Amino acid sequence: MTWRVIHKEETISTNLDARLGSAWDVFTADFQTAGRGRLDHKWLSRKGENLMMSAVIDVSDIASDLIATFPLVVGLSVSEALGRFLPSSVQARIKWPNDVLVEGRKIAGILCELHAGKIIAGIGVNVLQTEFPSEISSRATSLSLLLARNSCIKNPSVTEVRDIVLEHIAANWSVWRKDGFAALLPRISVLDCLKGREVSVLRTDDDASAVVGLCDGIAQDGSLIVAGERIYAGEARQSRPIT
Ligand code: BTN
Fold this sequence. Notes:
Elements: E1 4-11, H1 14-17, E2 25-32, E3 51-58, H2 64-67, H3 70-83, E4 92-95, E5 99-102, E6 105-115, E7 118-125, H4 143-149, H5 158-179, H6 185-191, E8 198-203, E9 210-218, E10 224-226, E11 229-231, E12 234-237
Parallel strand pairs: 1-2
Antiparallel strand pairs: 2-3, 3-7, 4-5, 5-6, 6-7, 8-9, 8-12, 9-10, 10-11
Bound molecules: biotin (BTN).
């Protein structure tokens, strides 16, 4: 399969544009007027500096329990793609369920939505932005900031990052569809930044209770195991920064 990229200079949200798309369409924009994150957060991104895209994935023949694991497949794809641009000493890591962090700071966010039998995989990657709003500046990073700190002179373009991320999604989608999530789990676990740490997870899959304890990583059904409990949806927090 090949991706078909549909680009706009400005849009409300590429995840909204993607609702009208077909499988393997990718909607991108230089700027979103109402970019959305998980849990009703806003996704703020400076014009033309970052990757904002929504890929449409056909999952009509895939069981719903497997579909639930797809955001982690996207997280793996983005982490591995970013690894192609970063020096080997700097690792992009997956923070369950939907973030990609480098050195404890968020470089990418993922918002997967199910619409009309398709997954809309919305992905925001900080590529060239070097200044962030004060409320997130201590928690955000970008490829440009990381490369500059590691004395790398040349930044990739937003389009180069887009193409490498899409290449990884397509490759990982094939494995996931044929062999299931378990086939990708060892690669996800290696990049899992919560595994082996004391974490606090605010559950959103039940009564918004917090589960605190040792994280044993991600299970074969995509849930996070904390203090022996399986958590299917939530927001992981930590008392100490995640590295
Ligand atoms: C998160 O971290 O909460 C998820 C952020 C997802 C942002 C991307 S940018 C492209 C796509 N369009 C949106 O409105 N959101 C996603």
